[in-house]
Amino acid sequence: MPEKSTLERAKRDRAEGKAASTQAGEFIREEMHHIREGKHGARNAKQAIAIGLSKARRAGVDAKPTATASKKVRRKAAQESARAGRKPSPRRARATERALKKEPHAAASKTALSRRAKASAESRRKRGGPTSPRAVAQRAAKTRKKNATPRRARPKASSPKRAPRKAA
Fold it and tell me: Could you say which of 24, 88, 103, 113 would form a disulfide bridge with 56 (CB–CB 3.0 to 4.6 Å)?
């Protein structure tokens, strides 16, 4: 079960009209904290993110799998979304927790997350399309330009001009 504060933050994100991935990010963040504080572990950063996403879907966040997701991942995501709002089975939760306790805790380290982010960006770069880092940066620049406040002409300084210094 996610913590109350996580659910509230995700609810606030939803109320603000933020994307489902942003809402799900709160659950992923919580999972990283759990791993760092030693509650349980994960095999790698990808698994840690997957656990957080799963929690988000079960909490009712409409986080859809990516276009490149496998059939297995799509089916699992559908199952998790269908379970939204229902209480988890205590026996299954205990079994999962026990299995995750045996996993390493380095999955949530800054190095592991950095490695994962770089690998993810690299795969998007190679694939190209609208999710490539270049395309995303171009859209961001366009948005910044569109939303930029026009710079007002600065008023001239009203101080009187000084005479140039004389060489001694």
Answer: 24
